[in-house]
Amino acid sequence: MAEDETRLLMLIDDEPAQCRLVAALASKAGWRTIFARDSETAIAMLGTQQGMMLDAIILDQWVPGDEAAELIAELKSRRPALPILMLTTSTSPLLAVEAMRAGATDYLIKPLAPDRLIAALNAASERQDRDDELQPLTEKISSPLNFDEMIGSAPAFRAALAVAAKAARGQGHVMIEGETGVGKEMFARAVHATSPRAKMPLRLMNIGSTPANQMESLLFGHEQGAFPGAFDRQIGHIQRAENGTLVIDEIDRMPAEIQDKLLQTLTTGEIQPVGSNHSLRIDTRYIFCSDRPIAEMVKAGDFSAELHELISQQRICIPPLRDRNGDIASLARHFLSRIADQPGMRPLGITQDALALLAAYHWPGNVRQLQTTLFRAAIFADGDALTTAELPHLAHMMLDVESPALATHEGIGVTLYANDGNLRPLEAIEADVIRLAIGHYRGKMTEVARRLGIGRSTLYRKLSELGIDNAA
């Protein structure tokens, strides 16, 4: 990266080892880091020449001085446009809520994955200039679901569920493909939870966030003295998941030499830890996840054809959210219900216009982005229901849409939900359906009755009861 493209990061932290780690990781993406050991130093540095050039701040939750949320609020009051990321060991949703309400842009959980840090920094620094992305919140509200609880009526999604449910009953390897954020981990957990191995260990390994020089050791294990720094024997993920399931995410990013060793393990059922002269027979089931179609990588020579054939015995393809647009409303209400159960949150409805806005967006981050967008909106909501006012980034991006409501009503014609997010009374919905039918069939009451599946006398009785003028 050219010198004039270097971005400046302030790290507020008093741990030298972590400071070195963050600075080293950030430098690989073109960031230069300055340090503040406590809150007072950080606030003072904002007024310096370097402080005026800052592109982002990372704040450790345990930094000496002010409480983290108070310090975030103070920093935001002095530099409102400056992105602030909180670094913590806690996975508490309440902490995420407090940080976001104080003004944090994102929330990073230790130990830091290199790719996650760089992605968060880049996304935060580009936020002011790019309106086509929503900033993800790292806090996830998740729990294992069985296949019957998964929300979605789109044919491609139901087909994926059917394949997954069948795969869960077997013992073979499973490949789950789909874009980032579609729910691959959710599917993998459900396959394990409904499989004969459900009571045995489930372990997850993300290839994308694993340093290349540690990948073989973490996957297969190593013996003491196998390489410089191997002071103790380490058991790898495959052995730790014995008799259970190992989920290997982002298999598409696995180096060729590790692919070859994994192929040997899958073929023989044995692993050979690094530095060991003998092999161990391990009974582990594998579920592989990939953001990219592996078959295309095989054709391009970027992935082992033999390994692909072996791991794709059962292949699940999860469609992107843009291809299951009709599921967005149900997903939104489901996520809001889950969000309401989190500490510091409360039940919220969602208006029809807000749902239409969600449906009109293309969701490059898929279901995960929808969930984090709703979480962010729920944090700042004042009323009893989310409106378009709580979705300013989406509203700004969709200014060219003449009427967001059209996206929801098109092809439906009947509004099921009131503006407060609650269901409308059944009589009101029934009246709208009858009016729609009368208009659609141009007042031909015999046809209206036939299409609604009721007799003419019943239709006229309903017209009277509901106060509908059939000439209207």
TrEMBL record:
InterPro entries: AAA+_ATPase (IPR003593), AAA_lid_NorR (IPR058031), CheY-like_superfamily (IPR011006), Homeodomain-like_sf (IPR009057), HTH_Fis (IPR002197), P-loop_NTPase (IPR027417), Sig_transdc_resp-reg_receiver (IPR001789), Sigma_54_int (IPR002078). The modification 4-aspartylphosphate is found at D60. Residues 8-125 form the Response regulatory domain. It holds the Pfam family HTH_8. It is found in: Cytoplasm. Residues 150-379 form the Sigma-54 factor interaction domain. This is DNA-binding transcriptional regulator NtrC.
